[in-house]
Amino acid sequence: MPPTENGRRSLPSDTPGWAAGDGDHGRRGQGKSRPHRPRPARARRGCRTAAREREPRGGPSFQAPGSPRAPQGLNELASSIRLGRIFGIEIGINWSLVFVFALISWTVAAEVLPIDVPGQPALAYWAAGVAGSIAFYACLLAHELAHALVARRFGVKVGGITLWLFGGVSRLDGEPPSARAEGLIAGVGPLTSLAVALLALVLSLLPLPALVADLFAWLAFVNVALAVFNLVPAFPLDGGRLLSSFFWRRSGSRQRGVHSAVQIGRVFAYLMIAFGVFELFTGAVLNGIWIAFVGWFLLSAGSSEEAGTAVRGILRSVPVSAAMSSPVVTVPDWLTVDQFLESIAPLHAFTTYPIHDPSGKLTGIVRLGDLMRMPAAARAQERLKDRARPIAEVPVSRPDEDLAVLIQRVGAALDLRVLVFDKGELVGIVSPVDIARLLAVRQALAGRAPRAGAAGTTPGAA
User: 180 and 272: one domain?
Assistant: First the structure.
């Protein structure tokens, strides 16, 4: 396409009127404004070129590592239920919690209380079982709140806490500023669990109904077990982070500290896997499978933590503007999928497009792959807005945000792309390919062999 007299590219003369726009040449925004959803770039005559994402075939790929305590799996919180806020920290539960909640309720009602306190009505056992399960997750919440509050005291932003299958995770948008801070953030969790265990033990000794007293005794036991398990020196457990802080303090490098801690954690993970296999062959099938699975989980989490730390180290202090593609094509949301595929998609080498309503307000994003997988008959009927991801689900950033912080903050949501706003205007878009390209260049400049991608971290236990 030849440039027009003002230096912008023009669309072909046979482009339909609703597909014409301002052109697609632009600069990368360098503003310092905060991300702003309302009133992003407005389209003048349909398809407006405000910013764009280029995603070449065969390029490097990137899977975003999660935050230090909120790995990738739990950065996908669309399936979680928000319960509210405590001390300004958002609390949520993931759907996977249901299975463990039911298992704990059954264990307490059918295996613990009938043995310790026989002769009670079945309804009483089950009511106590449900109450015990709720109390257990309240203890987990106290454990995670302790992590979050100490992290906030050291200046680390807390994105929230989620209770899920393996316990709970605190989503921290940043890394501890020092080895001491990491040690205190990690250590306060097990200390809180021990304090809760002591409180439960004291309550169990009071003159209470036998069923209630035994329930408190059980809570004391599980909180001690929770503290001990979390002190296992393997990521993402608190023991692994305590070990990392120790090596960080000795070496002066967080990356070397994580590497040393991961090596030790792998030994414990392999031992757990071996013990799980042993249990499996001795007849304890479910117990063996569970222990081996936890060992595999710790092994995977350690590798992911090490990879994530390396990536964050390379991208620390790099602004989002260095990676974002600018400009991005925005498309009217009232077009049918066929209209888009026939008249707009062939003009650009992009895979993701923000869409806007007649007023110019962004309403979502569409993925080319999603549209191409639609049945041919549906493409002529459905409009882009019918197939779009809502704009509320799309992460946003600003040009001067630290790229490492962005990756930690959005985690797996990076696959949806990140829209970059400057003073309310859409100025760029960030994709995994954009970050992989920048990461490969910086690895090469640092003398490292470029990697095709960085493994995402796996969810952590309480």
Answer: no
Range of the domain at 103: 72-231
Position 456 in a domain: no
144 catalytic? Reply is: yes
pLDDT tens profile 378-407: 998 999 999 999 988 888 999 988 888 888
DSSP characters over 405-436: HHHHHHGGGGGG-EEEEETTEEEEEE-HHHHH
Classified as helix, coil or strand, 168 is strand
In a domain, 246, yes or no: no
* 361-378 as b/e: b if 16+ CB within 10 A: bbbbbbbbeebeeeeeee
Using one digit for the tens of pLDDT, what is the confidence trace for 31-87? 333 333 334 344 333 444 443 344 443 444 444 444 334 434 434 444 578 888 999
CATH number at residue 412: 3.10.580.10
Region of residue 317 (left: phi > 0; alpha: psi -120 to 50; beta: else): left
Q: Are residues 81 and 203 in the same domain?
A: yes
Tell me, yes or no, whether 269 and 337 share the same domain.
no
The verdict on 227 and 78 lying in the same domain is: yes
The one catalytic residue among 53, 144, 175, 182: 144
For residue 235, how far is the Cα from the chain centroid? 16
Q: Both tokens of residue 2? A: 């030849």
Helices (H), 231-323: 238-251, 254-281, 285-315
